[in-house]
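Got a spare moment? Tell me how you read both lines of this record:
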Amino acid sequence: MTQEKLSPADKANNGFPGKQDFAPPPYKEATAGVSTPCYGVVEVLAEFTWDDRNIRRVFIRKVYSILLIQLLVTVAIVALFTFCDPVKDYIQANPGWYWVSYGVFFVIYLVLSVFSESRRRFPWNMILLAIFTLSLSYMTGMLSSYCNTRSVVMCLGITTAVCVVVTVFSFQTKFDVTSCHSVLFNFCIVVLISGLVMSFVLPFQYVPWLHAIFAVLGAILFTMFLAFDTQLLMGKKRYAVSPEDYVFATLSIYLDALYVFTFLLQIFRCGQDSA
């Protein structure tokens, strides 16, 4: 009776010839054909996937809950600065507070945008977001105090309608707005150049139609950014925001809505000045 000689490979397989050791592939090989681009500070975490509907639903609910509180605070401050004459007179007589709030807004915006730990560590992220909301609300309220009440109310209504329509569109459409980041970048350059031209023209003469064009371009730009940022938090698009960055997502949509309102105020104010 002949005895088969086992090869070294078969000996490693406990004496069973032909048996091979099927080890699981490494993570890099398993994910070699799947790539998920990230936007800015976005990170793809190993412990979750965007296919998990529960994670996405909780993330979106958290973002819009915080956003609703921010918008309610802003509307309350705008209403106070617009309808209360003593408050309106005080803030217009003390413009220095506007620049203080602008400095606070700018610093906190940089901190929350650049440093990921600052926007992910509770409760510091919420404290910074609250201070950011109050500073930007003060700036928006002071700008509103220079417009008449009817214009402010109309701009609030138009902004609300725009936000609702854009949000519904972003959730329902199959078009990937996040893939149009190059178009938004070029549009930003156009608005930036328009703002620089205005800054040179303003010391010599106030031109209402030039300011109106700039305001229209700004309102369109941030309406597009609103759709872009809304789809970022939805996931399943070219770019997505990590669920850990709910403060960053809230910050982006809140800024888009307030900028749309501010540019609409400028449009109505230009119409009043030219009348």
User: Anything to note?
Assistant: The CA atoms of residues 140 and 258 lie 8 Å apart.
